[in-house]
C-alpha cells in the first residue's frame, strides 16, 4: 500500500509540529498517492527555516540550505525537508532573482508549477488543496497554478515539465496552459540543456508519449533545444515509450547528413557511448546478408542491444529507417545464434598477441591487430576451433601468406 511510505515519514512531520512548526507532504508523492500510483520519494515542506530543521533533528545533511532544503536522516532513510518558499521576480525565464523563506503554506504552493503538484497533505492525511488540484487530477487535466502566461514566462522549463507529465500520466493540457506554452516556447532556449534532458528522458519513456511528442512538434519545441534543433523532427513518429538514447540514435541514423554533436546534449559519457553504439548497429543491420554476417554482428554488439532494437521494430518501419531482413534477424534467431557462439569476446580466445608473436617470430605491427580480428572471425565462423594448438597452426599458415 502506498500509504506506508508516508506512515514511515510521519514522525518527521509530528516532530516538526510538536516544535510549533507546520509540516506537510507535498508535490509528486501526494499527486501520485491521490492517483493510487506507487510513490517513490517523499518531499516534505515546512514553516521551519533550515537552521530550525537542523536544530530539531539529530542527523541532517545540508544538501541545499540556501534554497531551503535539508536532508533529514530518519530510521536510515533520507527525507528532503524544504522550508516554505516564495519567489521573487524572474528576469531570465529560468530562475527567480531571489527566494524568501515564508511561514505560510499558501505562499509555498502558489509558486509550484501545476495544480496537481501543489497539493499538500498533513500527518493525518488531510489534504490542503488551494488550487483545485484534486479536481484536475480527477478530470485528468494539467493546469498551471495561476496565470499560465506568467508562470511559463517565469520559468520555461515548466513547459517541458508539463509535457513530461502528460507523457507519464496521459492527462490533457488545459487550454490556457497550452496557449501559455505556445507563447513562451522560444524561452526554452535560455534553459540549461541538463535540465531539459532530465525532463526529456522522462518524457520519451512515458506511457502516453504519443500525445506529448505531438505537442512538442506542434510547439516547434525542438527548434530551441541544442542538438535537436539541427534535425527535422516534424515528421518523426514517436508513439511508444523509448529510451531517450534510442531516440537520439534513431535521428542520427535517419538523417545521416546532419552531424549533430552529442556534446551539445551534455549527457554522460556512458550515454554518448551507448548512442554511438546504437547508431553503428542500426547502420550495420541492412548489411547483414548471411548467417555468417549475422553471427559476427551478434558477437560484435551483444545479444542485449540487438534485442532492444528489435523491440522497437514498428517505430523503425514507421520512420523509414534502413530496413533489414526479418528472416535473418529476429528475436528468436538472435537468441539462438547468441547461445551457439563459440566465444563471447576477445578474452575467450585461447591465444593472445604475445603467443602469436612467438609462434611466427615476427616483429609486432599493425598486422597483429588484423590477424587477431581474422582469428576472431574464423572461430565464430567455425573455420578453426578455439584450441591453442589449432589456433597457432592457423596463424602460421595465414601469416605466411600475408
Ligand atoms: P516526480 O514524481 O517525477 O518526481 P514531481 O512532481 O515530484 O515528479 P519534481 O521534479 O521532483 O517533480 O519536483 C517536486 C515538486 O517541486 C513538484 O511537484 C512541484 O511542486 C515543484 N516544482 C518542481 N519544478 C518546478 C518548477 N520548475 N516550477 C515550479 N515548481 C516546480
Ligand atoms: Mg519528485
From TrEMBL:
MF term (GO), any: CCA tRNA nucleotidyltransferase activity
Catalytic activity: a tRNA precursor + 2 CTP + ATP = a tRNA with a 3' CCA end + 3 diphosphate; a tRNA with a 3' CCA end + 2 CTP + ATP = a tRNA with a 3' CCACCA end + 3 diphosphate
Enzyme type, top EC level: transferase
Top-level division of the source organism's lineage: Bacteria
EC number: 2.7.7.72
Residues binding CTP, per UniProt: 28, 31, 112, 155, 158, 161, 164
Matching InterPro entries: Bact_CCA-adding_enz_type3_sf (IPR050264), CCA-adding_enz_C (IPR032810), CCA-adding_enz_firmicutes (IPR023068), NT_sf (IPR043519), PolA_pol_head_dom (IPR002646), PolyA_RNA-bd (IPR032828)
SUPFAM superfamilies to which the protein is assigned, alphabetical: Nucleotidyltransferase (SSF81301), Poly A polymerase C-terminal region-like (SSF81891)
Residue span(s) of domain CCA-adding enzyme C-terminal: 244-395
Alphabetized UniProt keyword annotations: ATP-binding, Magnesium, Metal-binding, Nucleotide-binding, Nucleotidyltransferase, RNA repair, RNA-binding, Transferase, tRNA processing
tRNA nucleotidyltransferase/poly(A) polymerase RNA and SrmB- binding domain: residues covered: 170-228
Assigned protein family: Belongs to the tRNA nucleotidyltransferase/poly(A) polymerase family. Bacterial CCA-adding enzyme type 3 subfamily.
Name of protein: CCA-adding enzyme
Species in which this protein is naturally found: Staphylococcus cohnii
Taxonomic path: Bacteria, Bacillati, Bacillota, Bacilli, Bacillales
Amino acid at each position: 500500500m502506498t500509504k506506508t511510505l508516508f506512515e514511515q515519514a510521519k514522525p518527521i512531520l509530528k516532530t516538526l509540529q510538536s516544535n510549533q512548526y507546520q509540516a506537510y507532504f507535498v508535490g509528486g508523492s501526494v499527486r501520485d498517492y491521490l492517483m493510487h500510483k506507487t510513490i517513490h520519494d517523499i518531499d516534505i515542506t515546512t514553516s521551519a527555516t533550515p537552521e530550525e530543521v537542523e536544530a530539531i533533528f539529530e542527523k541532517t545533511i545540508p544538501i541545499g540550505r540556501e534554497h531551503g532544503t535539508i536532508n533529514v536522516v530518519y530510521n536510515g532513510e533520507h527525507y528532503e525537508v524544504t522550508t516554505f518558499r516564495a519567489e521573487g521576480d524572474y528576469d531570465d525565464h529560468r530562475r527567480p532573482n531571489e527566494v524568501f523563506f515564508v511561514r505560510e503554506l499558501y505562499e509555498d504552493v502558489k509558486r509550484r508549477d501545476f495544480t496537481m503538484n501543489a497539493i499538500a497533505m498533513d500527518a493525518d492525511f488531510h489534504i490542503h488543496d488551494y488550487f483545485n488540484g484534486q479536481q484536475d487530477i480527477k478530470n485528468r487535466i494539467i493546469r498551471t497554478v495561476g496565470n499560465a502566461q506568467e508562470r511559463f514566462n517565469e520559468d520555461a522549463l515548466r513547459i517541458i515539465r508539463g509535457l513530461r507529465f502528460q507523457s507519464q500520466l496521459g492527462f490533457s493540457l488545459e487550454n490556457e496552459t497550452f496557449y501559455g506554452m505556445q507563447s513562451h516556447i522560444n524561452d526554452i532556449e535560455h534553459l540549461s540543456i541538463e535540465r531539459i534532458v532530465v525532463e526529456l528522458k522522462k518524457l520519451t519513456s512515458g506511457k502516453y508519449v504519443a500525445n506529448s511528442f505531438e505537442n512538442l512538434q506542434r510547439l516547434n519545441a525542438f527548434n530551441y533545444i541544442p542538438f535537436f534543433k539541427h534535425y527535422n523532427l516534424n515528421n518523426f513518429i514517436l508513439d511508444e515509450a523509448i529510451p531517450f538514447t534510442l531516440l537520439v540514435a534513431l535521428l542520427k541514423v535517419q538523417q545521416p547528413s546532419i552531424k549533430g554533436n552529442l556534446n551539445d546534449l551534455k549527457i554522460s559519457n556512458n550515454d554518448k557511448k551507448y548512442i554511438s553504439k546504437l547508431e553503428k548497429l542500426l547502420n550495420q543491420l541492412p548489411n547483414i546478408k548471411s548467417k555468417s554476417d549475422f553471427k559476427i554482428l551478434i558477437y560484435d554488439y551483444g545479444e542485449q542491444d540487438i534485442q532492444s532494437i528489435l523491440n522497437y521494430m514498428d517505430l523503425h518501419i514507421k520512420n523509414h529507417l534502413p530496413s533489414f531482413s526479418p528472416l535473418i534477424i529476429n528475436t528468436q534467431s538472435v537468441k539462438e545464434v547468441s547461445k551457439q557462439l563459440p566465444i563471447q569476446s576477445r578474452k575467450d580466445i585461447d591465444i593472445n598477441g604475445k603467443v602469436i608473436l612467438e609462434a611466427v617470430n615476427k616483429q609486432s605491427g599493425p598486422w597483429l591487430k588484423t590477424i587477431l580480428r581474422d582469428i576472431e572471425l574464423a572461430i565464430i565462423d567455425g573455420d578453426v576451433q578455439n584450441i591453442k594448438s589449432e589456433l597457432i597452426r592457423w596463424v602460421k599458415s595465414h601469416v605466411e601468406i600475408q
